[in-house]
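Entry for adenosine-5'-triphosphate complex. Fields follow.
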Amino acid sequence: TPLQLAPLIQETLKRFEALNPEFQFVSNTENIHDVMLVMNPLHVEQILMIILDNAVKYSLETKRIDIHAILLKQEVQIIIEDHGIGIPEADLPFVFDRFYRVDKARNHEIAGTGLGLAIAKQLVMNVHGKLTITSIETQGTRVELTLPIYQV
Ligand code: ATP
């Protein structure tokens, strides 16, 4: 059964807002109001939680996360941007690898196993979507999640 994406994003964001009251989540999903997916809602939720959890963990100094959506012909893009510590260019190719964590020293106070993005990538690949990350160290990170739309 098809699943409405925008409410699922908003519900997930509400939970993150409740857990991180000092953070500002700025979101706009109006343009994907009617977008439906054919996916397990728990999987969509898990992907979003992994990305948002990272955005929070790695932007403790700036505390602002922007979420917006872009509607394409057969796909929807959800873009999650933080303004935190970013990822060095040399590490970017490896962030989807299992157990990979950028610079243990920098991360030593931030809990994590390095599995989150590997799991998210797998869930996205299973539905023939795309998950890409661009980042500038000390500036922030932009995650683009692309999922196929259910066409009526
Ligand atoms: P967990 O398995 O609990 O998610 P994790 O955050 O270490 O732990 P991943 O989500 O797989 O693991 O991320 C891999 C690594 O990529 C992280 O350790 C971190 O160094 C880097 N990273 C991921 N997202 C961001 C982000 N938004 N900003 C900065 N670095 C990030």
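NOTE: The longest helix spans residues 41-57.
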